[in-house]
Amino acid sequence: MRLENKVILITASTRGIGLACVKACAKEGAIVYMAARNLETAEKTANELNAQGYRVKYVYNDAGKPDTFLSMIDEVVKNEGRLDVLVNNFGVSNLQKDLDFSNTNINDYLDIVTLNLRSVFMASQAATKYMAKQGGGSIVNISSIGGLVPDISQVAYGSSKAAINYLTKLIAVHEATHHIRCNAVLPGMTATEAVKNHLSEDFRNLFLRHIPLKKIGLPAEIAAAVVYFASDESAYTTGQILAVSGGFGLATPIYGDVTDTNASRS
Fold it and tell me: Exactly one of 58, 157, 166, 255 is catalytic; which is it?
């Protein structure tokens, strides 16, 4: 049990990568709190996991209500007496408004950037105050490969994720004296409901051409990196920006064209 009895709080955790993190951490022996806006869904999920022998609870968090980032931390610490790991998984974009640089409205841009950055900053700041008193802790930020490699759209989302990468390093440096680590996991395209519902099959296939491992990631594969950063196995690791993206962004920009040409010749 790599996370036995650690108290872990995960935001936006009723589906997708967040839910995969809940399951992975619970399987490793942690007491996991699902921070969610829809408490009915969170309660149902927690009950299903607890019936399997895990320890999963839930707490209210609405990214549109900044105070709930503080109250969720307070509630977990009040209930458990500590908080060992915070996973900042919340992130939002808007495919209808978050466009390319020329066509994105400044107010839409700032709304998305504010939501994504505020969630990490406020939750982390509140968590570190408790972690410092208890002798340490770990913060794991779920960023995106889009924070490293500029996309053809989603200018606000990419900007916010790039800023989260920087904030990850800053927190790692500023909080190291309190034995608090901070690292980031950067998913590439991942097989979530959001990807399935919002990105066409043609676009997913186009993206896949540029992934050296030739597969779309699974939420559980992202969660595996989170478990590592949450565990004591990474006790000497902080400020790291780990891309879990199948190698997307590593190769020459013509990688997809070259591999297609080679495949057609074979």
Answer: 157
